[in-house]
Amino acid sequence: MRALLAEDKLDGLLTVGHMEAMTMQEWQHARDAGVAVVQVGFRNPKIAPLCSVQPDYEVIGRTMAELIFSHIPSFGSVVLCAGNPKWEQHARIVQGFEDYMQENGAQNRIYLDNSCCIGSEAQRNILNLLEKPDVAACCSVLSQGSVMLVQGLQQCGKAGKVFAVGSDVFEENLDALRSRILDNIVQKNPYAQGYLGIKALVEYLVQGKAPEQRTIYVGSEVVFRSNAVMYDRDNFRGCCSENKNMKKADWFPISPPFFHVNGEVKRASGKCQKVSGISPCTRACGSCGSSSRSDPNPVRHPRPTLRHMDDAMFVNGQFALHGQGVVFFQVRSTRNTHSS
Question: Which residue did the predictor score with more confidence, 333 or 144?
Answer without folding.
Answer: 144
